[in-house]
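Onboarding guide, step 5: your first structure request.
Type a short instruction followed by the sequence, for example:

Predict the 3D structure of this protein.
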Amino acid sequence: MYSFRVPILLDGGKPDTSEDELVLADSPEERIWLQGPAPLKEASRITFRGSGYPSPEAAERRGAELCFTLRLTALRAGVGIDFMERQSFPSLSPYALDAVNAVVPENVRAINERAGVHVHKTEEQLVTFQVHAVGQVRTSETSFKGHFVEALRDGVPNQRARLAFDLFNQSGRAHGTDSRLLTLVSAVEALVVPQKVPRQEQELIANLARQVEASSLVEDPARRAALANRVRALRRESIRSAALRLVQRLEPREYAGMAPTTFFDRVYELRSRLSHGDSPSWREVGDVSGEFAHLTRDLIDLEFTSPEPNV
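The system replies with structure tokens like these:
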């Protein structure tokens, strides 16, 4: 018989039990449960497990299906579950794994942890490895005082910079590169002041809006008015266009070897794909997040010292 295991991270709400195991379903054909290294109400990394399947394919299929069930369960129960599908895991080399497996008991197998469904023989006990590190960045007292004196001289208080700063700092506490990237883009968007398009375009848009209002193609007056308002919204540039204009102020600096606008355009494409369900790989997102944080910080600094005027 075969079983499956799925690593998950408990974050936020947790099952209120002092047991390290929570059985979710149990029948002669199948057993489904959560397993932790400590009481589940205190655990962070646990596994979602199922057993009773006649083949590896059946176990994998059922595991993938039940992951959707667990997502809906967590949503309704107020339990924070992260399947960690968009992050990397530390791993041992094949040689190190072979060395470990050569000395463990016969029914134990060491594996590299990875996201998703992992199928194994039911009688096998799988063991994985975790790496933990804690780092701190400290700024000297003299340096901090010096920066304060400069900020006192250079700073121009404004609400856009304030909101962008708060979002920027929240991005550092985000769980996962996706959340971090989306929060950083929101910080940039908080600085954006869309400008009106040229006068000739405004006149064209006004004419088009009047044609929409007078059209008989849309019978419902409310829908016709709503469509005309959408047309009128074109009198100001899009958020993306305004953001590119804002980012251009960072030239001649480069980010990831690219001009600021080129780099931002690449990031904004990833943001759009994330927001609209066409998920880029976690590696694509991770590759740009660090450098995009630098760009966002530089933009906020610029807004604090030389804010873009409202138009």
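Each response can be followed by summary notes, for example: The beta strands are 2-10, 21-26, 31-35, 45-53, 81-82, 108-110, 118-121, 125-127.
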